[in-house]
Amino acid sequence: MKKSVKQIKFENKIKDRLRGKPLKVVEFIFLDPEIQALHDYANVVSIKRLGFNDHGPVHMRKAALNSLLMFDLLAGAGIQFNLEKEGVGNVEDSKIAVLVGSLLHDIGMTVSRGKHEFMSVNLAIPIIDKVLNQFYPNDIGKKVIMKSLIIECIFGHMANQTIHTLEAGLVLTGDGCDMEQGRARITTILSDKPRVGDIHKYSSSSIEKVNIIKGEKKPIKIYVEMNESVGFFQIEEVLFPKIASSPVKKYIELEAGVKGKEIKKYL
Q1: What strands, in cross-sheet order, belong to the sheet with 264-265?
Q2: What gap in Å lies between CA 266 and CA 181, rounded to an integer?
Q3: Is the pTM of this model over 0.70?
Q4: How many whole angstroms separate alpha carbon 184 and alpha carbon 53?
Q5: Helices marked H in the chain — which ranges?
Q6: Measured between alpha carbons, how far is 207 from 115 in angstroms, rounded to an integer?
C-alpha cells in the first residue's frame, strides 16, 4: 500500500515534534500494515461509497498533528493533563494516548458513518493492545489505564458522548480543526450535482487556513482564515460545538474571519 505525498508530509511533521517513547509509538503505527489498510479503506467508504469528505490517512494524521500542537501549548503553559494530575501517569503517557486516539479515531468509517465512533472503538481495541504490549510490556496497571483513556479519546471525538479528560478533549478538538478546503477537495471533484448536506462541502472549501498558535490570554488560540463568509457555517456548526463540549474549552481562544474583513471572536 503506497502512501501519498500528503500522508508522508504529515507523518514527518508529527515525528519532527516528538522525542523518546511517543516518537517510537507513532513510528510503530506508521509502519503497521493493518492500520494503513484501515485508514485507506475508511476513505473508500467515506468518499467513494458515501460521498463524504476525507476520513482516511491524511485526515487522521492532520487531526493528530492538530492535537499535538495544542498538547504542547498546554504543556508549555504548565497545564497538567489528567493522568499526571490524578497520579496514574506522566505527560509522556498522556501524549501517547492523544496520538494513538487521534490516529485511530475514524477507523470505524470502514463500517458505517452512523455511530462510527463506536465502530472505531471495536476495531481499535486489538490494535491498542498490540501497541501497549509493545511499549508497556511489563506494566499491567499502566496498560489498563492507557487503554481506557485511548478508548475515551476515540468514542468522544464526535461530541455525542460526554468526555472528562483533557486528553480526550484534545482529540475531539484536533479532529474539529481539520476543516481546510483540501479536506473537501476530492468530493467536490467527484460530484458537482447538488445534494442534501452540500453546505458542509462548500463551507469547508472556503476555509483556507486553521492556525493553532499560542493565545494572548489563554494557552491556545485557534484562528480560522476563510475566503468566503459561508465558512462561518463550518465554524458554528462543526468546530465550535466540538470545542464547547471539550474539557479543553477553558484554555482556548477561537477567532475566525474573511480575509480583509473584521475578525469574529467566539471565545
Answers
A1: 207-214, 220-226, 252-258, 264-265
A2: 21
A3: yes
A4: 5
A5: 5-16, 20-30, 33-43, 57-76, 82-85, 91-104, 116-135, 140-155, 166-176, 182-190, 198-205, 231-234, 240-244
A6: 26
Query: pLDDT 10s digit of each residue in the chain, 267 long?
Result: 689 999 999 999 999 999 999 999 999 999 999 999 999 999 998 888 887 777 889 999 999 999 999 999 999 999 999 999 999 999 999 999 999 999 999 999 999 888 999 999 999 999 999 999 999 999 999 999 999 999 999 999 999 999 999 999 999 999 999 988 754 444 443 445 554 445 555 676 889 999 999 999 999 999 999 999 988 988 998 899 999 999 999 999 999 999 889 999 999
Count of CB atoms situated within 10 Å of the CB of 189: 8
Nearest partner of 105 among 145, 51, 67, 50, judged by Cα: 67
Look at residues 102, 135, 128 and name the one whose alpha carbon lies nearest to residue 20. 135
d(CA 203, CA 187) in angstroms, rounded, equals: 13
Measured distance CA(222)–CA(212) in Å, rounded: 5
Instruction: Judge whether 180 and 6 are in contact, CB under 8 Å.
Output: no
Q: 110 - beta bridge partners?
A: none
Q: What is the DSSP string of 126-164?
A: HHHHHHHHHHSTT-HHHHHHHHHHHHHHHHTTTSSS---
